[in-house]
């Protein structure tokens, strides 16, 4: 077993002309608001730096669900598919997006990250009109 740590950025864009996240369900059938009950499917870019033109590392593919009545917390579940790392990492946890720093679990992995267990510390580096850049600092055993 070894411990690995690294960082990446996730670029999430919803309600824009070229989205990487699509609302597929919501309260009262609405998919046009970010409110309690909204379900969003993501295929977000993962990069080495905070710029969307930074070196690509892969994609974050999964879902998030707005799970608090005040829309401040989401259930984030996705797999980071790394294009040059020969493996994936699976993330799952409650993310109170209004907090400056939060933590979710790494619950598994494949390839060189098989049996991964650990955590990710998340900070939001920018957020404008449902487009956010999230910084992930991950530490895990595998």
UniProtKB/TrEMBL annotation:
Keyword field contains Secreted: yes
Subcellular location: Secreted, Extracellular space, Apoplast
Sorted UniProt keywords: Apoplast, Secreted
Main location, first listed in the record: secreted
Gene Ontology cellular component terms for the protein in this record: apoplast
One Pfam family of this chain: Dirigent
GO biological process: phenylpropanoid biosynthetic process
Known partners and oligomeric status: Homodimer.
Family: Belongs to the plant dirigent protein family.
Function: Dirigent proteins impart stereoselectivity on the phenoxy radical-coupling reaction, yielding optically active lignans from two molecules of coniferyl alcohol in the biosynthesis of lignans, flavonolignans, and alkaloids and thus plays a central role in plant secondary metabolism.
Protein name, UniProt field: Dirigent protein
């Amino acid at each position: 077993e070894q411990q690995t740590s690294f960082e990446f950025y996730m670029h999430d864009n919803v309600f824009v002309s070229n989205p990487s996240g699509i609302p597929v369900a919501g309260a009262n059938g609405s998919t046009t608001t970010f409110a309690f009950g909204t379900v969003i499917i993501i295929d977000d870019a993962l990069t080495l730096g905070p710029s969307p033109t930074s070196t690509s590392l892969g994609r974050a593919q999964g879902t998030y669900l707005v799970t608090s009545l005040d829309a401040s917390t989401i259930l984030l579940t996705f797999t980071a598919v790394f294009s040059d790392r020969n493996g994936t990492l699976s993330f799952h946890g409650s993310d109170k997006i209004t907090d400056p720093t939060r933590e979710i679990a790494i619950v598994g992995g494949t390839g060189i990250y098989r049996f991964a267990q650990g955590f990710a510390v998340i900070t939001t580096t920018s957020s404008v009109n449902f487009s956010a850049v999230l910084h992930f600092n991950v530490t895990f055993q595998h």
